[in-house]
Amino acid sequence: MFDIIGDIHGYATALERLLTKLGYEEKADGWQHPDRKVIFLGDFVDRGLEQVKTITIAKTMVDNNHALAVMGNHEFNAIAWTTPDKEQPGQFLRAHTKNNFNQHEAFLNEIGEGSVAHQAAIAWFKQLPLYLDLPGLRVVHACWHQEYLITLAPYLNEHAIVLASAWPELCRNGSAAFEALETILKGMEIALPAGVEFTDNYGHVRKRTRTSWWLSGNHITYRDLAMVPSDIISKIPHEPVPPHLQAGYDGDKPLFIGHYWMNGTPDLINKHIACLDWSIAAKNIPSPKLCAYQWSGESELTADHLVWVER
Ligand SMILES: [Mn+2]
């Protein structure tokens, strides 16, 4: 049975405290539990001060069959950052812009850009599947979107690991594969109705919004779906969202996601979906947490299986 752990973002000490709380012990071949395994939801790196240690803990657990892991958008970006763009000599699949560098700077500085450790980390990230569809549960970093998983299938091997040859296409802004990949790892974003826009916390004018993509139905409106700051939600109209912009979730199996920075007391999204990213790396919330769900085969999730540590 599995303990699913949310986004760590370089907070290795919190991870060790959470593993201890879950009954894992550190032995010569890494952290382990006599009869449980961890599933990591991705986003091991960027932001925190113990990113290398975080990778070491997680990779050692995976290598010794004490954990599974999926890729987060930060691992995807880390790979694209190091991968030369063969069509544009001197460029990389993720552009080396100031913004992109700032997001990744703490990782590059800690691990040493181009070092053996950096190359080893990237090689490991490339082996992380994009999702897991196990007998009793599903795991993906941000969004389980059945049609986009089908779109991505030609680019993945049978373990949902990206084929070496597929990276350029998955990084090519505008390709169907890129849109599918972005949705799986970053969540479903939709265009707001014509004429509607808002200014986000960074001062950027937004005409698109993240969505609570798991909601679906005839009466779902843009305001229902929009994930925007609470002072902005009233600007989003109660206009119906066309069905093709609704992902929805069938609830066939419990689904575990990370990515969305939750805060407050950890809780489920609903009885079929748990988001386990409780913002361990957040700067401006009262009590950042690293959170896990102790899953023992149940088909309906219960909030009392959530376990967390404070930063
Ligand atoms: Mn993420």
From TrEMBL:
It comes from Oceanisphaera profunda. GO terms for molecular function: phosphatase activity. InterPro entries: Ap4A_hydrolase, Calcineurin-like_PHP, Metallo-depent_PP-like, Ser/Thr-sp_prot-phosphatase. GO terms for cellular component: cytoplasm. SUPFAM superfamilies: Metallo-dependent phosphatases. This is Metallophosphoesterase. Pfam families: Metallophos (PF00149). Residues 3-112 form the Calcineurin-like phosphoesterase domain. PANTHER family: BIS(5'-NUCLEOSYL)-TETRAPHOSPHATASE PRPE [ASYMMETRICAL] (PTHR42850:SF7), METALLOPHOSPHOESTERASE (PTHR42850).
